[in-house]
Structure prediction request, 128 residues.
Amino acid sequence: MASDKNITILYVDDEDINLFLFKANFQSKFNIITSLSATKALEELENHHDEIIVVISDMRMPVMNGIEFIEKAKEKYNNIFYYILTGFDYNEEIENALKTNLIQKFFTKPFNVEEIEKAIFEAVKKLK
Prediction:
């Protein structure tokens, strides 16, 4: 697939290894910002909300889970496309987030690079 360094993605996960793997897989294609916590991710959004097009968040994190984080983020930045990436099963909370359009889609770990790339390019197309 094509590469577009003008597309900025914020990836939120409480595990360093997951941030590393995400960046390793996507930094040649996109501008990647990573955050180790939902709280830090809200700060990144505050600083870069005019650049960020897509936010992908882990579901299970301490303090605030991915859905709670996205609810908070979307209150302020509803022009961004939000996704959940989880190592756990699809559940009612994710189902409700999809039904209410809080998130566009959810991905499972280990993630499929092509599936995430496709979703990112679809989100970008919707902006044009």
Remarks:
- The chain has a mean pLDDT of 94.
